[in-house]
Amino acid sequence: MENETQETLETQEPGNTAPDPEDLSIIKAELEEGRKAKAEIEAALADRAKRITELEASLNVVSQASEAAAAELAAVKGASSKAVSKYLEAARALNSTIPKDVISGQTIEEIDASVEKAKAIANAVRANLEAQAKEAKVPAGAPTRSEISLEGLSPREKIAAGIMSLRGTQ
């Protein structure tokens, strides 16, 4: 339409610069359309600005909630860590027959598994030591006297042993 207006202005006689009533109505219609488009754009921009403000406010709320949750999580982790270390100390104290280095873990489940494994090892060692002690048991009291074994002695030593037994001194 703008081109038509340009052509109309160019084709008019140089002396007559006043636009036709038809051209004026076209220009007015274009101007009115431009105003309506501008009003629509301004309304859309205002809606978008309002929506951006709402979203920024929501973001601030979510950000604050996230920070609060992070702080709470850090406090819970700290408390959990303290509880696990106290549980580890208690497990070591309750199992005094097991070396403290053997019982370890970063969680309660790991500590429990460590205690069970240590108990199994301690019981196996205890059973093994008891079996060895039974095998090497020496009877109480003095050993019974028995005759001197003459095996491996030379004839001279055998004669000496016989003479000593007759005298009663062994």
Provide the fold topology.
Layout lengths: L1 H10 L9 H74 L13 H28 L19 H13 L3
- Share in β-strands: under 5%
Gyration radius from CA atoms, angstroms: 55 Å
Q: Identify the overall geometry.
A: rod-shaped
| Biggest sheet descriptor | none
Could you give the distance between the termini? 147 Å
Order of helix and strand elements from N to C terminus: HHHH
Q: Look at the helices and sheets and give the structural class.
A: mainly alpha
Please give the count of helices.
4
Mean pLDDT: 85
The share of residues in helices is over 70%
**Overall strand count:** 0
What are the low-pLDDT stretches, counting only 5+ consecutive residues below 50? Answer: none
Tell me what you see in this structure.
- The chain is mainly alpha-helical.
- The protein contains four helices and no strands.
- Helix 2 packs parallel to helix 3.
- The longest helix has 74 residues.
- The chain starts with a helix and ends with a helix.
- 4% of the residues are buried.
- The model has no long low-confidence stretch (mean pLDDT 85).
